[in-house]
Amino acid sequence: MNPPDSNRTGQPAIELDAVTCSYGERVVLENVSFAVKRAEIFFIIGGSGCGKSTLLRHMIGLKQPVQGSVKYFGRDFTHATAGQRQELLRTFGVLYQSGALWSSMTLRENVSLPLELLTGLDRRERDQIASLKLAQVGLAGYEDYFPSEISGGMKKRAGLARALALDPGIVFFDEPGAGLDPITSLKLDELVKQIRDTLGTTIVIVSHELASIFDIADRVVMLEREVRGIIAEGDPRKLRDQSSDVRVREFLNRREETVHRQSAQDPK
C-alpha cells in the first residue's frame, strides 16, 4: 500500500515529537524527538536496558506514550481515532525478533494472514501475493513448509515476507540479527538493503550489533539508560570517529562483532 500523502515533497516518513515512555510509574524515556527520512535505513541503538525495544513498542502502537506524538507521513498516529489508526497501521510492517510465525500455519498461510485480515482479496489472490513475497525474500519453493521445518535465518526471512505483505512504506525490525550466525546475519542485512533500494521502503531497525550498524545504516540515534533519552544522532561512522561523548565512542568502537562480520565476508 502506498503511504498516505506520499506526494508531499520532503515530508519525513516518521516524526517523533517529545515522546515519553513509561511502565506505570517508571519512566524509561523522556522527551524523545527525531525524524526518519523516506527510504532511509535508520537504526535505534544503545546498550541493554536503554529503552530501544520500549521505544519501538510505543512507535508501532503496542504501548501509548505518556506524552508526545508519533506521526507517519505527516499524520498523527498517537492521537488518531480507531479508524484512522487502522488505516495508518497498513502503512508499516513489523519483523519481530523471533519472527513470530504461527507454528500451525505454513509459510504461505503466515504471509497471507495480514491480507486475509485487512483486505478483501480472495484466497487465490492472497496465495499469489504470499508466493510473490516469499520469492522476494529468497524463499520461493518453501510456501508449504511449516516454521518448524526451516532454519532460524529462513524464519526471519519468512517474517519479513509477512511484514511486506501489504506493501508498506515502512518496515520495523526488532533485533533482526539476534540468534543468527555472522554469515546468515550478513545475508539478512543484504536483503534489507536490497528491499530499500528496489522498493524505496523506509527501514527502522532496533539493534546493538555493530556489524549491521556500520554495513547498512544511513543514520542512527543512540539511547542511554541514565539520560533516559538520546545522546547521539547521525552517521554512525562519523559518530564512532568524531563524537565528543566518550559513551558514544566506547559503544561504537567495540571490536568483537565487526571482526566476526569481516570473517564471514572473507573466510580463511
Explain what you see.
This protein is α/β, with parallel strands linked by helices. Helices cover 38% and strands 22% of the residues. The chain contains ten helices and ten strands. Strands 6-7-8-3-9-10 form a six-stranded mixed sheet, with helices on both faces. The protein has a four-stranded antiparallel sheet with strand order 2-1-4-5, with helices on one face.
Features:
268 residues; alpha/beta; six-stranded mixed β-sheet; four-stranded antiparallel β-sheet; 10 strands
Please write out the topology.
Layout: E1 14-23, E2 26-36, E3 41-45, H1 52-59, E4 67-72, E5 75-76, H2 82-89, E6 92-95, H3 107-118, H4 123-136, H5 152-163, E7 170-174, H6 182-199, E8 202-206, H7 210-216, E9 219-224, E10 229-234, H8 236-242, H9 246-252, H10 256-265
Parallel strand pairs: 3-8, 3-9, 6-7, 7-8
Antiparallel strand pairs: 1-2, 1-4, 4-5, 9-10
Helix pairs in contact: 3-4, 3-5, 4-5, 6-7, 8-9
Quaternary state of this entry equals single chain
Overall radius of gyration: 19 Å
Uncertain parts: 1-8
User: What is the overall shape?
Assistant: globular
* H-E order: EEEHEEHEHHHEHEHEEHHH
